[in-house]
Each structure stands twice: as C-alpha cells, then as structure tokens.
Batch of 2 targets.
Target 1
Amino acid sequence: MPVKKIGITALVPPELIFSCGVTPFDVNNVIPASRKYPGNKLCAWTAIWKDMLVKKEIEVDSLVVVAGGDCHNALVDGQKAAMSGIPTHFFFYPFDGDPEYLGSQLHRLSLFLGGIKSPEKFKEIGELKKQGQLLDKKRCSGKLSSSEAFRILISFSDLAGDLAGFSMIISDLQEKDIEVRNRVALIGVPPIFHDFHETAQSLDLQIVFDELPYEFIRHGGSNIQEIAVNYCGYTFARPLEFRIDFLKNELKRRRVDGVIHYTQFACHHMLEDEVLREKLDYPMLTIQGDLPGNTPQQVKLRLEAFREMLDRQ
Ligand code: SF4
C-alpha cells in the first residue's frame, strides 16, 4: 500500500509525521517555481496552495493546517481547502510557549495521523538535522553557496518526503571556496521569488542566515515530550520580543554586515518591520514580494543600492 502523503502548510514537526508511518509534503515548496497567479487573494502563498489543493493539482491524502502560530491567512485558506473534501487537521502552537499545551497538540496530531508506528524516525531525523547544521555552518564560512544551502535548508520542513534520498542529496554537495564579502541576513518569511539567493549572490551579497529555514533545522527531539519542549522555541509562533532576542544573538554570531527583511504582500508579518528596524542595530533593507517568479528588476536595483551602501561602510 502506498505511504500516505500529508500536506502541511507551515512547520509541523516532521519527526512526528514520519514516525506515524506517513510522509509530509510542504505545500509551500512548489509555489516559487509555480508561476501561478490566483484571482482572489490576500497573500499569494496561501491562495496558491489553497487553489492547487482544491483543483487537485497538489494531491494529498490529508492536510495539516497550522492555524495558530505563524500565519493568520492559512486559517481561512486552510478551511477552504478542507471544504473541498480533504480530511484536515488544524494544529496550534502556544503563543506563551507552554510545552504542556504543545504536547497535547502533538498527541492530537499523532491520533489524526494514525499513531506512532516507527519511533526510530525521531533519531533518524535528528541525525539529518545535524547534517543540516553543518551545511549551514559551511555556507557561513564560504564553503557552500547561499543558494545551494537555501535549497536544502528550506526542504527540511518535509525532508523532501524521503529521508534516505534527502540524506544522499546532502552528501552529494560539493564544497566550494567562496569569498564571503557583504555578509547578509535574510529575515522574515522566505522570498516568493525562486531565484532570490542567486540574484543576491550575483550582486555580491552573501546570505549567511535564512531566518525561517534555520527554524526547520534547529528543533527536534526523540519523543513527543522532547519535541513539545523543543518546538516551543519556534520563534515565528512566539511573541516578537522572543524572536528579536533570538535574532540578535544569531546576527552577532554570524557577524552580519546588514539585514534584508523580506515581507510578503498582505502578510501580517509586514507590520513587524518598524519594530525590527528599531531593535536590530544593522543597516536594513525592506523589500516586498507578491507573486511567484523571477526577482523583479526594481528589487534587483534596490539590492544593488544596498550592496553599494554596505561597500561604503
Ligand atoms: S507570507 Fe505571511 S500570510 Fe503568507 S503564508 Fe507566510 S506567514 Fe502566512
């Protein structure tokens, strides 16, 4: 019998999904290259995956919508997708970081997924995340390009649905020797432009930190209790001050010269821009995207001007 495919709309501990004998599929990962332009939308990310699920252009056996935590639009578009007949579970992170609450959410999720059948998957994924951490370090020291690193790190949300295959992809990466000038952190939700990292690189901006993908590799645990405690530190689901404290340490540790804050049209995270600018003491460029595709020319021009400003510093 084929392994069931579970659509996820944001970070849902993949350790638990795989250990229940089913496979996660992050519905966001197909969007940047999709070239889809939805008619009725706020945020293009949720509008596109909702349309694709309803039209069965993405086929899943069931869906887990992160309805409380890191995305408000997903709550509504997730319900619209559920109305098309897909068995759907709504998952909530605790804003106050209460591990008991998250533990109860994870238990409910495991029931929805049929219960834990392969507990060894917790450890197997833990080992893969160690490889992810190593890869992240390599790109910080110029041993890997930021575009290659990003492509792998962003896939840690669902580990490409294939643990052995994903491990091979990581092992096959060839080390490079890249001069890392203009060390830049990319914060906020990931850009909807599929070539953003290559574009930044071509303009001599080396992205040494991808905020959201880093969340995908830094949480884990070997059972439900441990992942409940650990995933309570998922910064996007917590108060802004919690996230900013984490960011300050990470930006310092990676010795960044500047910050790019990517915002998405009609996303509530846009409202955080002024606070991030006030609290993070770095030159900051805020850009906004809407529809998937190549990085637009005006964004390229702004990246170039930002690089010139960093050069002068
Ligand atoms: S960009 Fe914002 S609104 Fe859109 S899916 Fe991400 S968190 Fe949700």
Note: DSSP finds 13 helices and eight strands in the chain.
Target 2
Amino acid sequence: MTLGTPGTVPVAVETPRHTSISGLLDYTSPQPLAPGTLVRVPLGKRDVPGLVWEADPGATAPPAALREVAMALSALPPLGADWRALVEFAAAYYQRGVGELALAVLPPELRKLDDTQLARRLKRLAALKPAEAGTPPPLPALSEEQAAALAALAAVPTGHPPPPVLLHGVTGSGKTEVYLRAAADALARGHQALVLVPEINLTPQLESRFAERFPGRLLVSLHSGLTPAQRLRHWLQAHLGQADLVLGTRLAVFASMPRLGLIVVDEEHDPSFKQQEGARYSARDLAVWRAHRAGMPVLLGSATPSLESWQRVQEGRYLRLGMAQRIGGGAMPRVRLVDMNLLPKPGAGAPERVLAPPLLEAIEKRIAAGEQSLLLLNRRGYAPVLHCGACAWKSGCPHCSAWRVFHKLDRTLKCHHCGFSERVPRACPECGNLDIAPIGRGTEKLQEQLATLLPQARVARLDADTTRAAGSLQQQLAEVHAGEVDVLVGTQMLAKGHDFRRVTLVAAVNADGALFSSDFRAPERLFALLMQAAGRAGRDAEQAARSEMWVQTWHPTHPLYAALRKHDYDSFAAAQLEERRAAGLPPFAHLALLRADARTAEAATGFLQEAATLIDATTAGVTVYPPVPPFVAKLADVERMQMLLESPSRKALQRTLAAWLPQLNGLRSRHKGLLRWAVDIDPLAI
Ligand SMILES: [Zn+2]
Ligand SMILES: [Zn+2]
C-alpha cells in the first residue's frame, strides 16, 4: 500500500473516468484516514460522498491549495483491500471512474447518514439476536454424481488460486445440493459464502432452502426488490461479517464480505448477470476474478454453460464437473419436433393454425390424466401489431422504430421499448377504416385461442403483464402447484427455475425466430431456453418416462434442434464454437461497443466516425467497424448508433480503449445534437 503525503488523502468521488484519469482527487485531513473510509468532501460548490483510496503512485504532485475532507464516517469499518481491488479492477476493465463505480455499488442509504446516526445503527445491529438456532434437517443421500462432484471439489488444491469449477449438471441433477454442501464446508471453516442467482424471482425458493439447511446462521439477500432500509441493513450485516450467507442478484457480486471463502454463480450462462446500464459489468466474470484474486473456490453452475465458460474448460483453465443424470434416475423428456410444413394448409377463411393437431391431442391427454402442460411463446400482449387492410397503416410507436403491441384486456397499444401507451383507436387513424386487425400472436391471444380449442381446460397465463403486481407471481405459482391450472401459457419467465411437479408436457409454440437472428448469440440463448424449458417437464421420476418437450418448427432439420432432440449440449457447443472461431467472434475475439445517442442519426454517426479516426487501427491491433444502428434504432425519440471494436487480444483492446476514451469528451462540442456516449465491454448483444 502506498501512503500519500502526510495530511494528503486521495479520495474516489463520483467523477466519470474521463474527468480525472485515475478517478481520484486529493484532499487534506487533520486526522489520518485509512483507505476504504467513507467520507464527504467538497467538490465545486457541493459536498459529495467519497471513499478514501490508496495514493496513486503515478499521480503528479498535488497543487498546493487542497480542500479539507468535510466529514468521515469513522464508525463504519473501512471497506477492505480485497473489495477495493475488485472495484479498481472493474472500473479499469469496464472503463469507468473508480469512485463512480464504488459509490454506485454501495447502498444509497449509506450516504444519507452522519457518523452518529451510523454508530447508532451499528449498535442496534450488534444487539440483534442472530438467526434462530435449530436442528439442521437430516441430509439427503447424495447421488453418485453429486458425491463425485463434491469429492472432486474437495480435492481442488487450495492456496494457489484454485481453477474455477464449472458444475455442468442437467436440470434436476441436484446442483443446489452441491452448492449447499460446498457452502456448509466454507461455513465450517469460518468463512462467508456468496451465492449469485440471475433473477430476483428465484431468490425466495433458494433462500428458503439455504435457511432450512443452516439454522442458526444469518442469511441475508441483496437484490433490487429490497427497500432501501433493508438493503442497507443486509449490506451492513455482510460487511460487518455478521451474515454468513449472502444470496443475491448481480449487484451482490460487490458485497463487502470480510470472511468471504466461496462464491457460487447459479445459471452462470444467464444474460441477467450482465448489467445493462452505467458500468456494464458481468457479475459472473467479476465473481471469477474476485475468487481468483483471493485464492478461493468459485462454482459456476449450469445445464447449458455459456460458450465462454465452456471454451475455458476446453483450454484447461476451468475444471468441469459433470452431472448427467436426474435425481431418482428420471429420464430427460423426449423431444418431439412438429414439422409445420407438413400440416395441411387451413382453407380460405378458416382460422389460423395455433397448435398442430398431434400437439393438441397430447395436451388433451395430459388434461384427462390430471397433468399439466406449459406452452412457451416469447411474446407478450395479444398481437405484436395492429394493421389496416385498406391503407396499410400499422401501429408504430411515434417515439421508437418499433411496433406498438396490442393488449386486448385493457384495449391499449403499448410500446414495449419506451412504455408509450394509448387506447386502441376505433378506426384506422390514417383512413378511417373500421376494420383494423391484429397480426401475429402474443401470449394473451394464445391464451384466448386455447380457451376455444380446449374448452374443458383451465388455462392460465404467466408473463410480465400478469405478474406486475407485488406478490402476484407467487400467487399464480401457488395456483399452478395446487393443481388449479391445466395449461399454463407464458414467456421465457416460465422456463426459469420454477419447480413444477405436475408438468409432463412443455411446448415451444414458435421458437424459430432466433435461428436466423443477426445476433450471433441468439442460437446459444435459444438452446439454453429450450433445454431449460424441457427441464420443467417430468421433475418427478415416475412422470419422467412419459414427459415430452414439443417444438413447433418450420425448420425441423436445423442442427440446433437435432442437438436438442438428443439433449446433447456438448455437440451443440462444439458446433457453435467452431462457427465462432471461423467468424472471429467471442470467445475467440474480444469486443467493445461504443454507443452514441443523439437527436439525429447523423449526429450520432458523425460522432462515432470522428471517434474512429483517433484510433490507428494498424498499430493498435484492433479492428474498428463502421457505425450501424442497433436493432431498435430510435428509442423514446432518441436516435442511436453503435460502433464495434474487435481484437483477438484482450490486452490490445484494453490498451486502445484506455488511451482512446478520455479523448472522446473533447469531440462532443463538435457534434450538435449528441446527447451521450457510452462504452460496453464484452457486450452481450451487438
Ligand atoms: Zn387505414
Ligand atoms: Zn416507443
């Protein structure tokens, strides 16, 4: 640790990286302040929060007249060196200011307290009775594969940074039990454990399993669904070392945990681990970095690992532990492809084909047997667009380059990008034609059509529209579990994690869209979604034998479906990686995306084009592609453009970005109408 000049304290404040390269500003303090101490400092005419940091050895001598630290939160133990190292790494890697990132990941309530208030809080927390002690339940017998995975995990050498472990287990193979045992082991050694899950909806289920397993241990959650006061309390309990287990979504990767000894990332392939605004960090990647630096194990679990992690296994950098069998020996559901090309075309005037007759028949059989079916359609609302046959008007959003979706229940046209919503017009706004009709199908329409096709069935729907109200998701899931629903229609929300015991049939109604997407990750995501959805069927061993996953497709010979039929992740991954290697795409190349938002597309393009001239691509070892619009080019009246940078070398890309980005603010004034720019390192969607 480098100490500053006596009396001089470097403080990380919320300035963007491009204002002060290091993100640190110097202040004076009458008393010594340890790095990691939370302070308030004057900046311009305001007092702002800041964190005392290590002196930057490369910094130039501070100007003579430094201002004094206004207030220090001395009651709070300083944030530790490991935590600061994580923040510093993430800030440099994702090209943000240190203070900007550090303060963004701390609970906002923290900055509202003064030292006396904080001291009172900490005293109250210290006096709290910890979690109720009790007898842990008898441990379930381990499957052979679970036992083997745990033995391999125990044999991973410690001391040196152990290799990250990829727990590649099919749905139902009992990955959670492995997490529980690994956590028990960490706790027994006096450590804290951090468990990351992709979705806040999945935390209650996992939380109750951990709470039941570890009576007497304090478990806290960290996610965006907490009240500010809860978030502060949980964060403090982790930071003070009172909480043994922290369970949370991506933000929790930044939890301050002084005794941290294990990180688990469940569903490591899930795109939700990537933050999509501000510092666009990947919590999965940061978890791996954090564990590596501290020399602790990190466990990445998935049935369909990300191709990044899979490639690292191939290179011998990650250790793969496989679990190919479902607990209780149940088989994976049989995958059946319905070739939509072979169905007889409905005659003129006949209703459109919703479900292929054999699929409909299969669902009817399940209903008769008292079993449940899940129908997956990745589009909410009634219909994606309204259309006038007379003048060709379509329900576009006036603020975005997107259609507004028809929601029949509340008779609205809603833009799913900017939220703009209006009553459905009685007649075509262009020509007055009364006969405007929906095109295509969303979950709402599918639910309606099923009510006609299956009049005897109880059909329910689960998507972002039906689960908006607090508690409604839990309520609806309870109805499904209680057997009050025969057929459940929904978006990909259905596929994630929920443990449905009566489901023996899962069907993807219209999955083809992603096969020919311009997004190179679309097939990977589709395969993961379908495998995950298939895993919802036949969770009980006795049902497994007759469980089925149906896929309606116009492209039944596509290799993705061939791999799905065999539940063959390995061959799917190998084929995808071969394509990525040939095309020079991740994980074989490293990407960064510079985005520009402006009043006009010309201003956004002009800014990006001028920015590109500042890179000498031949010496940088980086390819700079011409600016292109993203999928939704105009969003909420803002025109968006993006420019891709690609390099086979992560170092070369990082070096180029670090030298380049600080110059970009200087360009701003020359591009009238430019609103903002941002950089996305390792973007998920391009
Ligand atoms: Zn019209
Ligand atoms: Zn819109």
Note: Residues 8-80+87-127 form a domain with the GIY-YIG endonuclease fold (CATH 3.40.1440.60).
